[in-house]
Amino acid sequence: MSDKSVSQQDRRRKRALIVFQVLLYSYLLGLFLVQLHMSHERGW
Fold first, then answer.
1. Residue 44 above 80 pLDDT?
2. pTM score of the predicted model
3. Which one of 5, 6, 9, 21 is at 20 to 30 Å from 38 when CA atoms are compared?
4. Tens of pLDDT, residues 3-32
């Protein structure tokens, strides 16, 4: 029974880590796209 709870907790931790990574990378990609758009608007 303790093994099952540990595996559930581990799975939940892995899922939280994946969600965090997806949010972080989408945020960085958004910043990059904004920079790209602004440099394009400026005519660089």
1. no
2. 0.67
3. 21
4. 678 899 999 999 999 999 999 999 999 999
> Could you give the CA distance from residue 43 to residue 5 in angstroms, rounded to a whole number?
57
Q: Collect all residues with Cβ–Cβ distance below 8 Å to 36 and sequence separation of at least 6.
A: none
pLDDT of residue 34: 96
Residues across the chain:
44
State the chain's maximal CA–CA distance in angstroms.
Answer: 63
- Please give the single-letter amino acid code of residue 36: L
Structural domains counted in the chain: 1
For residue 1, the 8-state DSSP code is: -
